[in-house]
Amino acid sequence: MGVLVNDIMTRKVLTVDMDRSLSEVRRVFERAPFHHLVVIEDGKLVGLVSDRDVFREISPFAGTPTERACDAFTLRKHVHQIMTRTPTTCGAKDEAAAVCKRMLDQRVSCMPVVNERGACVGIVTIRDVAHWALREIEAATAARDSLKAA
Questions:
Q1: What is the C-alpha radius of gyration for the chain, rounded to an integer number of angstroms?
Q2: Nearest 5°: phi and psi at 16?
Q3: What's the CA angle centered on 127, arms 126 and 131, to 5 degrees?
Q4: What pLDDT score was predicted for residue 15?
Q5: Pairing verdict, β 36-41 and 15-16
């Protein structure tokens, strides 16, 4: 068996509930080193929201001196109004290569990892895949170099 999702996924996942305002979520993304929040309801994955989703919905004038009422309104929208519902998911025991292929085929930059009960236990992102690929390349290079030296 090859490399599993469990071997490459990020385990610490920040979650948000569906009724959180975009103002609150924007503040999270402004401070966070990641680009996706998993939306949870009753302990189960119900959606996904990205920083791009949030910043696309919020007026660029919100919170500025030129803000109008319609600009301020965009900050009061809720996550459930913009999230991706039922995102593509995978399991921790899935083959990492197959999940990477699905991500490429479906043009998604992340995939929540769920258990049998639908609870989110991690996330696989393009960054995780890049780290994995780098480790594989470094290992292959080291093996090749040791063969040359022998």
A1: 19
A2: -145, 150
A3: 115
A4: 94
A5: parallel
In the chain, where the domains are located: 5-149
E-assigned strand segments in the chain: 15-16, 36-41, 44-50, 84-85, 110-114, 120-125
Which CATH architecture is the domain 5-149 placed in? Answer: Roll (3.10)
pLDDT along the chain (150 residues), means of 10: 92 94 92 93 94 88 84 88 94 96 96 94 95 91 80
Q: What is the pLDDT of residue 150?
A: 67
Q: How far apart are the first and last CA of the chain?
A: 29
Looking only at the bridges linking them, the beta strands covering 84-85 and 110-114 are unpaired
Nearest to 132 by CA among 1, 3, 2: 3
